[in-house]
Amino acid sequence: MAKDSLAQIDHSHVEEAYARWAPFYDAVFAAVMKPGRLAAAAAASGAGRRVLDVGVGTGLELPMFTRQTRLVGVDLSEPMLRIAQKRVAEAGLQNVEGLVRGDAMNLSFPDAAFDCAVAPYVLTVVPDPHATLDEIARVVRPGGQIVLVNHIGAESGPIAWVETAMGKASARLGWRPEFPWAVLGDWIDRRPDIALAERRKLAPLGLFTLARLERL
Question: Candidates 3.40.50.150, 3.40.920.10, 3.60.15.10, 3.90.640.20; correct CATH number of 3-215?
Fold first, then answer.
């Protein structure tokens, strides 16, 4: 499935959806997504001192990083960021340098500003995954890493049919249930400065995939 054939969502869809999700996002998603957040934080904590958390949301993974890791979080949703700010204050996370509202497809940071960027569960919620990946790569220094965690859709069979049917409700959900590996794989193939260092399925039941990329 090509990137252009993905269900279309835009920023207004995402903002509206996550304004609705914000009050109970943690209760619904914290447990099922925790293994992926732990894996992303562990990979990033060993990849450098300064890390950008793209799509930080309510900040669920912020306490999972080592305290030596300096963190900056960015998210499009103001209601989600308010919850993240409260979490940082209550947990005393002094290694969090800032939480800013911003667009993952147009990051307000200079080139090569970070040792590593993590983007847990982000690629399925942005209007243009390739533009998002281009921006994330831009702000990571050469020699740095990009850590992605995402649901990768089934290529065939009943699960693929269900994901395609659910894709028609992407605007209302705020994310795409169908998301083939080819979207990420095609981007890596056209970027000579990016190499896939690791790809592995995560709990629960291999529902999510971690991809660790190196900026050459």
Answer: 3.40.50.150
